[in-house]
């Protein structure tokens, strides 16, 4: 239903007039997120400053059947924070305090609007380490990271956001405020409700505090880049590295299209006559780092690497790492619309999946640059297209269907880190199956019986 003037007045009474946006020109930046080709104007935007604001907003939403779409920085890539028509966008970016760093228990307590980079920097200043590093970490917020269970380049060794969430404060759809988890390393009392909210994409509650696990900072790191004339050789090098019981903190790849775009964009000095590039980083004790770096270099050369460059300084390491971190930005310069997807397969099927994406590009006459996390099988096929070209967008949609179907056939999943949101909800039933979909719907109905939280996302209730 459309927002009435009395709805705006009530929301303004809760958070104050400076925290409510209603003018069209002010709403436009909140009408989309990082997902390409999706746009919907909200009814208004409300900035909450604390959990009590959010509780009051959700209680009012229940009374008036108002749709609530929670949003951080809007960097999501699956349409998870895309507004629904006439909804209230509940923005948490003003809740941006780091509340506590507890060195004795290796934890950090933060509000949902704190950026991932601010958390990493605060941990580093305390000689500690927060590993998750999504590509948007400079501007993405921890509330969004938790809601999407974000990954990152260090996921192979260190895992994803879920692995670092020890506790959550959550406001339920009816306005109740609930604390889940604690600072204990071990706690098996009851169901692990905390984990239900990690990756829930704003459909079960609104996260208002996050208790994060920190770890000791690695003492050393070594960065290197290897280039290959064939993608299969790169995939075989990855398999050989893992088989040698080496788990790098970063094991990333770029295909030929992405390499050319990155070099044109960043002028790193990448060779343009290769089919694949591997970015490898190992960290930990200096002696172990030196040994693993030497082993990885030898393995790559044994697997027909054209060249292996080892960073000699921190500046050189940052330059090499930028080849991967700038991939999306470099590709985005090529076409009016850039659609960054993610599909994950077992590592053993990675080369096969990459070849399949290449075949799909030829089949539908599409330009696709593929990069991603080769160490954990998470691919990012990136479609370089133009949403104004309706025929091409139809071919893009058809290509997506075939790519996700192939990922499932190979024992993989339709998303490794971006989430379902709006973009992938049509693919979820074929992946999850009937029984799992029933349980998902029943769980959502228990926690949000009136369906006010992020309606239309992940699946329809």
Structure class: alpha+beta
Broad shape: globular
Quaternary state of the chains: single chain
- Top CATH class of the largest domain: Alpha Beta
Biggest sheet: strands, sense, closure? 8 strands, antiparallel
The number of domains is 4
Q: How much helical structure, as a percent, in the residues?
A: 25-40%
How far from one another are the termini? 18 Å
Could you tell me the strand content as a percent range? 15-25%
Rg is 22 Å
Return residue spans where pLDDT drops below 50 for at least 5 consecutive residues. Answer: none
Structure write-up:
- The chain has 461 residues and is an alpha+beta fold.
- The protein contains 16 helices and 19 strands.
- It has 4 domains: 5-91, Uridine Diphospho-n-acetylenolpyruvylglucosamine Reductase, domain 2 (2-Layer Sandwich), CATH 3.30.43; 98-216, 2-Layer Sandwich (Uridine Diphospho-n-acetylenolpyruvylglucosamine Reductase, domain 3); 220-328, Alpha-Beta Plaits (2-Layer Sandwich); 335-450, Alpha-Beta Plaits, CATH 3.30.70.2740.
- Helix 1 (5-15) packs antiparallel against helix 3 (51-64), helix 8 runs antiparallel to helix 13 and helix 13 (350-363) packs antiparallel against helix 14 (390-409).
- The mean pLDDT is 95.
